[in-house]
């Protein structure tokens, strides 16, 4: 019988293929080298192909779709339960083949080259920001060795470094020179991160979906471009609640025997998107204080009943549902 479903376990050089027919019977088990992959699938009759969402998976999905195949990406933790035996390439490919055929499986949107290029800019900026934080912490720690305690915030650190430069604070010459060199490196990272942010702002201004999303409270150029590049048109998700669950903004369930118990958020999905949304809502909540519109009153009631972090996550989940609706329907933001 013809192959109807294939599980493809990808790697750098060795690729494992597992195919089944319409009855689920295994009729293909094959190992391919990297140069053989495209040639092999170009000759294979059109079928459903499953791949774990990992490094280079979006590239292979785009390439295989050019041959007419229906390629779907899945999070690795959704594939693991379908692996029957020990972990190896053949068992992984079999598990992928089984998982991709499940009717209720959740799939990862396949990104275009343009979307991946935008996310490359985001990843580079995040690396610079993390390096800047590491340098600032190193400087604070070194200053602390000489009895100089620096308060939280980059502004306080800059103030102390200015005082060191002007001689208002004394340090041994060698320590002063070393810390000054670290501070110069931090300033160069500041400059480069600002350059990346300007590029992201330009991309947001050129993107029609991003411009619409930026009208939501707490969604700026960085969040908007990251969402558009990662999610696309949002049609892979059946509802806004499913999109919020994919982001990990919904509660964990510990329900049994008819008793429903909800815990903290699941933290599944894209960590960066979830972080951007939550940080954005924290900023938005400050500007919403004292306002009388429905959304602001809803946030204020949440803050009264619980606390600011819970309200921020709840608002982020609400914004996620709004974002899904705007991307799928192509509508403008309407203040609730």
TrEMBL record:
Which key words are in the record?
Answer: Coiled coil
Instruction: Name all Transposase IS110-like N-terminal domain ranges.
Output: 6-145
Q: Where is the Transposase IS116/IS110/IS902 C-terminal domain?
A: 211-287
Q: Which PANTHER family match?
A: PUTATIVE TRANSPOSASE FOR IS117-RELATED (PTHR33055:SF3), TRANSPOSASE FOR INSERTION SEQUENCE ELEMENT IS1111A (PTHR33055)
Organism of origin: Noviherbaspirillum pedocola
> From the UniProt record, which GO molecular function terms apply?
DNA binding; transposase activity
Q: Name one GO biological process term.
A: DNA transposition
Q: Which residue spans adopt a coiled-coil conformation according to this UniProt entry?
A: 179-206
Lineage of the species this protein comes from: Bacteria, Pseudomonadati, Pseudomonadota, Betaproteobacteria, Burkholderiales
Top-rank taxon of the source lineage equals: Bacteria
Q: What is this protein called?
A: IS110 family transposase
The record's listing under InterPro entries reads: Transp_IS110-like_N (IPR002525), Transpos_IS110 (IPR047650), Transposase_20 (IPR003346)
């Amino acid at each position: 019988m013809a192959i109807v479903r294939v599980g493809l376990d990808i790697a750098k050089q060795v690729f494992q293929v597992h195919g089944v027919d319409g009855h689920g019977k295994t009729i293909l088990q094959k190992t391919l080298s990297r140069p053989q992959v495209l040639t092999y699938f170009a000759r294979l009759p059109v079928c459903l192909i499953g791949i774990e969402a990992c490094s280079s998976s979006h590239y292979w999905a785009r390439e295989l779709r050019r041959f007419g195949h229906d390629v779907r990406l899945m999070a690795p933790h959704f594939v693991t339960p379908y692996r029957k035996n020990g972990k190896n390439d053949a068992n992984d490919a079999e598990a992928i083949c089984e998982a991709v055929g499940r009717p209720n499986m959740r799939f990862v949107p396949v990104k275009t080259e343009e979307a991946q290029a935008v996310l490359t800019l985001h990843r580079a900026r995040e690396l610079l920001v993390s390096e800047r934080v590491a340098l600032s912490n190193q400087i604070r720690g070194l200053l602390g060795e000489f009895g100089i305690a620096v308060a939280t915030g980059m502004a306080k650190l800059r103030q102390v470094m200015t005082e060191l430069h002007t001689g208002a604070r004394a340090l041994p010459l060698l320590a002063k020179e070393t810390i000054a060199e670290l501070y110069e490196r931090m300033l160069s990272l500041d400059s480069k991160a600002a350059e990346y942010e300007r590029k992201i702002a330009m991309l947001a201004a050129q993107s029609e979906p991003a411009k619409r999303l930026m009208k939501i409270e707490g969604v700026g150029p960085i969040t908007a471009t990251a969402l558009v590049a990662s999610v696309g048109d949002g049609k892979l998700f059946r509802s806004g609640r499913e999109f919020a669950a994919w982001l990990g903004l919904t509660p964990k369930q510990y329900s049994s025997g008819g008793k429903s118990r909800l815990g903290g958020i699941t933290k599944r999905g894209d960590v960066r998107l979830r972080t951007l949304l939550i940080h954005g809502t924290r900023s938005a909540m400050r500007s919403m204080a004292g306002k009388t519109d429905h959304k602001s009153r809803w946030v204020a009631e949440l803050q009264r009943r619980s606390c600011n972090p819970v309200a921020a996550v709840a608002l982020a989940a609400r914004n996620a549902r709004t974002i899904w609706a705007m991307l799928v329907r192509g509508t403008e933001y309407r203040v609730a």
